[in-house]
Amino acid sequence: MSGDHSVPTRWAARIVCPGRHTGLPRTGRKPGGEMAAVHVKLRNSRTERPWIAGFLCALLLPALGAWPAHAQGGTSAVCSLRIPANLTPGFSRTSSTGTYGTGGETGTITCSGTVDGHRVTGPGSFGFKGTYTGECFGNVGSGTYFFTVPTDVGQMHFTGTYTETRIGLTGPVEASQPGARFSGPLVVAPTKGDCVTAPVTEVLINIAGTFSS
Asked: Domain limits at 48?
C-alpha cells in the first residue's frame, strides 16, 4: 500500500522500557512493580536503530502510566438509603425555613457495584445535614451528606453536597461528590407530628438511585 510505514517482517522488535512503573498488570514486572530493565533494539540484518526504541518509549510511557489510574477509579453503583431525620422547627401548614439532618451517620446505605474503583461488599452508614424552606405539602432543601461503606479494600468514607425538591411525599434528589454524581427519587414518611395537631419534626426518608462517574 502506498505510504505504508509498517516495520518489515524481517526486523526483530522488543520495546520494553527500563525502570518505569506504569501501573500495568504484573506480567513483566520486578517485585515492587518496577518494569524490568531491558536493552531495546530494532534491527535488521545491517542496521541497529536503538534511537527508534527510545523515541517510542518516550511517546508511549506517559499514556501507559495515565491510563490505568483513570480506568480503575470509576464509580457505578445502584444504592438504596433509609434515613431517619430530625427537623427544626419542622413542617407545618405555614411555610418556614429551618434545619434538618441525622445527627451523625444514623441512616443506612446499601449499594451494589463499585465506588471510586472498589467493589462495595456490604451495607454502610449514612448521614446528612442541611437547610430547607417549605411546609407540609412541599419543600426545597440542600446541604452536605457523608457515608461510609465497606469495600474490597476496607472501609471507605465519602462526602458531598445535595439538593432535593419535595412535592407531597416524594421528589428528586441530586447529589455530587469528587468523581461521582447521584440521582434518584426520595419518599418521605412522617414519624413524629401530623401537620394537623402538631408540626412534623421527625421523618423517615427512603431514597433509591445510582452513583456514576
From this structure: 12-72
Confidence label for 73 from pLDDT (cuts 50, 70 and 90): confident
Beta-carbon neighbour count of residue 104 at 10 Å? 11
Q: How far apart are the C-alpha atoms of 168 and 185, rounded to whole Å?
A: 13
Q: Over the stretch 80-106, which tens digit does the pLDDT of each residue have?
A: 999 999 999 999 999 999 999 999 999
One DSSP character per residue, 158-177 reads EEEEEEEEEETTEEEEEEEE
pTM confidence score: 0.67
- Closest to 15 measured CA to CA, from 74, 78, 75, 57: 57
* pLDDT per position as a tens digit, 19-48: 444 443 444 443 444 333 333 343 444 444
| 44 contact partners, CB below 8 Å, separation of at least 6 | 8, 10, 11
Same domain, 118 and 198: yes
At 189, list the grid cell.
414518611
Residues in Cβ contact with 54 at an 8 Å cutoff, skipping those fewer than 6 apart:
40
According to DSSP H, which parts of 34-121 are helical?
Answer: 50-72
pLDDT, mean over the chain: 79
Distances (CA, A) of 143 to 4, 6, 8, 206: 59, 58, 63, 17
Co-location of 106 and 189 in the same domain: yes
